[in-house]
Hints:
The protein is an alpha/beta fold. The protein has 2 domains: 9-132 and 311-327, ATPase, nucleotide binding domain (Nucleotidyltransferase, domain 5); 140-306, 2-Layer Sandwich (Nucleotidyltransferase, domain 5), CATH 3.30.420. It is built from 9 helices and 10 strands. It has helices at residues 49-71, 90-107, 116-122, 172-182, 189-197, 220-236, 240-271, 286-299, 315-327; strands at 9-14, 19-26, 29-37, 80-86, 111-115, 140-145, 150-157, 160-166, 275-279, 302-304. The strands form 2 sheets. The chain has a 5-stranded mixed sheet with strand order 3-2-1-4-5, sandwiched between helices. The chain has a 5-stranded mixed sheet with strand order 8-7-6-9-10, with helices on both faces. Helix 3 (116-122) packs across helix 9 (315-327) and helix 7 (240-271) packs parallel to helix 8. The chain is globular, with a radius of gyration of 20 Å. The structure holds 5'-O-[(R)-(carboxyoxy)(hydroxy)phosphoryl]adenosine and zinc ion.
Amino acid sequence: MVNPSKDIIILGIESSCDDTSASITKNGEVLSNIIASQIIHEQYGGVVPELASRAHQKNILPVVAEALKSAGISKNELSAIGFTRGPGLLGSLLVGTSFSKSLAMSLGIPLIEVNHMMAHVLAHFIKKPSLDIDPPEFPFICLTVSGGHTQLVLVKDYLEMEVIGETLDDAVGEAFDKSAKVLGLKYPGGPIIDQLAADGNSDRFEFSEPAVKGLNYSFSGLKTQFLYFIQKGCQENSNFISENLSDICASWQKHLVKVLFNKLVKAAQLYNITSIAIAGGVSANSALRLKLKEIGAIEKWNYFLPDFEYCTDNAAMIAMVAHYKYIANDFSNFDTVPTARMKF
Ligand code: KG4
Ligand code: ZN
């Protein structure tokens, strides 16, 4: 049983994609959150799994050492280690999993497996002295949007979540990144489209919406629609992209955000829920954040935007899930293995 009077000090480790991250939390408050991002993938226009695993292998020890050092915590003070078990790239997950198992075993402390998508949602509960925002109250709906996932999650409690809608094919982050590649922009293209859109006219170009039933999404047809739109534009004018770049980005970003919100509004009405949050890498998008404020005011929502630092992949959110699992005495066996696909 957990001793309630004892501090809960968690080392969180994240290695599901192309960021190696380690974080220390004490009683749910973040003391450090170190992230080593892998720039090697830029030149390939997307994450190369083999290179990602190798980079994690190289980064993990210095990142964990730095997280402990900057938190001022010795490894002997740790209560438990929380690690991302999935979903993600298997080779990348293996690095974090093996490292976490070995360290927890050598220190004689519990091991806690964490679902990466659940962690994106719990990023809303990260406490930091400089963060003066109230977390959402249960139940709430979280639109979780990343490079690999697009989900509408009904969050009933810290560790009780239900996916009520999701993409049937690609994630919205993938739609951002692949369209950026079509435009000749670097990887990851989402933040670059966001920056370029700031100077553009978002009403200049129009796109059609996919017909998907219920609360699910589809982005693969949208990716193709964008590719054909650019190909047609370039056939008519070889300078089409360079002459219209910011308008293209602004119009396309507006469209993707609109598609996301149509289902979010529907979900909120269907479940009669007015507490709405967004999470995941794409929740850093300025048009998405602005739209949440606009629609939130119209629909009378209590809306929640995560701090920028905790939108994209980070280990503080992994440590948060581990913190609540620690309180619930929900520990993992040392024979646990990572899984590329992981449900709640
Ligand atoms: O959550 P995350 O860091 O990693 C995954 O779990 O996938 O999300 C990464 C995704 C990438 O597709 C990236 O392009 C997108 O988040 N992203 C953005 C922005 N910042 C990150 N997309 C649009 N606008 C942004 N500002
Ligand atoms: Zn993520």
